[in-house]
Amino acid sequence: MKNKFWIFAVLIGILLFFPTTGFAQNTGIDLDEEDSFKLRPVRIGVKIGFPNLIGGNLEYVTPLLGKKLALNADYSMLKSDWLLKSQDMEEDTEDQINYTYLDLGFNYYFFKPGKGLYAGISYSTIKAESTLEYMDSVEFIEEKHNSFNVKLGAKLGGLFYFRPEVGYSFNPLPKKYDVLTIYNDGTQETRTDDWSELEGPADLLFQGLMANIGIGFAF
Known about the structure:
- By secondary structure, the chain is of the alpha+beta class.
- It has one domain: Porin, CATH 2.40.160.20.
- It contains three helices and ten strands; from the N terminus they run αββαβαβββββββ.
- An eight-stranded antiparallel β-barrel has the order 1-2-3-4-5-6-7-10.
């Protein structure tokens, strides 16, 4: 528990200090000049990270709480035939890997209406399905995972914006999942794959870590 706390604290520190200085220096934009930008309540962008992988983001800043409360939605859908080139797959293969992520929630901007540092709460759903065909069998994996989440992020920029974000999932992804195997002779078995021995940075993904970087346009 202490390790999780310090990991989350370090991520928050990086979010607060690195993006606001590094982004401004690299782009030559003085973030203090954001006051001259008009509030654009509709934001459409792309996020890359975990657990969303890569997908779209939509945010709408409402008139509530001094225009500091925003509705937020993230959506990702990835399929195996989008990720693999046609020559990498056999023409008659039935292998399929589908991943869907949906996250709905609210963001509250602390200091300025619809811009700068914000905190968020959300509810997310992950669906992962795979069908893997072998010479003597077919394996099926079907997982669904729901969680409440808290986030901390920053919306930097005006018409074009940059958005770093970190968060914590109160229901982290499980390290164990069931695999159903059906053999050609009609018999079947269910085994449990276990990633409990996983160590290193990848293990953070199973401890509730959420992190992504987004870019987009505001209107």
